[in-house]
Amino acid sequence: MPDLVAGNAVIGQSGGPTAVINQSLVGVVEGLRAAGAGTPGNPIKKILGMRHGVTGLTNDDLYDLTDYPHDRLQLLAQTPSAGLGSTRDKPDAAYCERIFEACQRHGIHYFFYIGGNDSSDTCRIVNELSNQKGYELRCFHIPKTVDNDLMINDHTPGFPSAARFVAKACMADFLDNISLPGIKINVIMGRHAGFLTAASALARRDDRYEFEGASSDGPQLIYLPEVPFDMDQFVEDVAKLYDKRQRVHIAVSEGISDKDGNAIGAQLIKDGQVDAHGNVQLSGSGAIGDGLSDLLKERLTPAGGKAPRVRADTFGYVQRCFPDQSPVDMKEARGVGRYAARLATSGDLDGSVAIIRTSPIGEGQPYACKYERIELSDVAAKTKHMPAEFIDGHNNVSQKFLDYCRPLVGDLPLYERI
Asked: How far is the first Cα of the chain from the last one, in angstroms, to the nearest whole number?
């Protein structure tokens, strides 16, 4: 066994909960137990859980997971949401000082934080602080975000399951749309990265080339935050399809912005609440869908005629924790947790875990990945966007994106259409 500092380990969950974030929590616990944590003579004495992330840690609100029963641990892994509770706190230097002091107070020398880019930044700051003070604190960030926007990672735990929900929800919604035609808008999570909105394209299960070579399956129009959103172009896109079919199915990212980078949501949501990072809260509001619906009704109503039937749904928080985990997501979320524990107990002092795809992206290609340790600074407070090769024009995704996403989401149902 490598030379390990004697002390306790602590695990926290941060940011939006997901369908598989508890898989990562259980993965860390299993990895530490495999190294003998909690057994007589082992340097790692206890495995502690932070109640609501670093908020609980600084308030000494910790839960002892050292002897948590195995059967309950396995059930917890399959349970959506953050089992320990999460937090949206964005620690500054003073807050990180309190985190460090709490680690000293509880004899913590192994720090695991499951979350997105802000969580990795917290991990980085606490790690640097402990180094400055000469206190050995092994800090490891474990990736999680439904937005899929962490650098270096091919994809992040939480995204495949959320993408699976989006694909199935849009599939059902499209079938509803062809039953009672009209214009339907679905607003999907993704402030700066369009991966989750792009996953709506997987709902296109039956490509019938009836109209100028284009698929008749929805969503026919997909708008991503990486592509400037133009109101006039949007109305024109919808009108063109509506004139042909009397139905249009649309997927819109909550983070769409105009050519100058101004968020459409912020323009539509008056006096909206802001989060700890100063961002207008988009997912809890239906204002984007309502605003776009009103725009279409106004612009597509003929003089003296009847307005088209336009409806909008904001998927909101239900995307994150829907109890239908992607098989790949379950496996990998557990895997990154175990890998982080292995790094900590093998001599590494810090880092983030990244999922790296090792197989080529292409239709029919077998999927494979590996886990790698990367520097905390590689991912901390940075945002990955949809690459240009995944985007087709101003309102669609490419075949390469579909080939990228399909193995992550897993098998989807097949339906018959008359």
From this structure: 64
The Cα–Cα gap between 396 and 201 comes to 8
Tokens of 301: 């109503």
Active site residues: 147
pLDDT digits (tens, 9 = 90+) for 50-84: 999 999 999 999 999 999 999 999 999 999 999 99
Pairing of strands 62-64, 44-50: antiparallel
DSSP 16-78: S--SSHHHHHHHHHHHHHHTTTTSTT-SEEEEEEETTHHHHHHTT-EEE-TT--HHHHHHHHT
Phi and psi, residue 404, nearest 5°? -70, -40
Residue 153: both structure tokens together:
């990672």
Beta-carbon contacts of residue 344 (< 8 Å; ≥ 6 apart): 9, 32, 110, 112, 138, 140
Q: Mind listing the domains of the chain with CATH numbers?
A: 7-158+324-379 (3.40.50.450), 159-319+388-409 (3.40.50.460)
